[in-house]
Amino acid sequence: QVxxxxxxxxxxxxxxSLRLSCAASGIIVSISDMAWxxxxxxxxxxxVAGIAKRGSTFYADxxxxxxxxxxDSAENTVDLQMNSLKPxxxxxxxxxxxxxxxxxxxxxxxxxx
Length: 113
Prior knowledge:
- With 113 residues, the chain is mostly beta strands.
- The chain has no helices and ten strands.
- The protein has a six-stranded mixed β-sheet, with no helix packed on it. Strands 1-3-8-7 form a four-stranded antiparallel β-sheet, with no helix packed on it.
């Protein structure tokens, strides 16, 4: 049974930073293609960043240059460091192993002054 637990969201002012973390069980993140998605109110879920099993990273244009995805093999986590946050980054952020139907409950990021 795959379980994904996202954490690290919260309220942050524009220009601030957050580090999101996804703790995974039932799946080994170091040999899986993992991704972060987000869903803003009233919008469809969208891709944010991904890290392939071989280590390549991918970013949506909207977060490129402001975000870094990484994984910790020892902790079996996938993190998303987000900097220079903007109000349009406000969304629920989800961790997702590509090619599977598994999703966590998400963590809410609110960027507001």
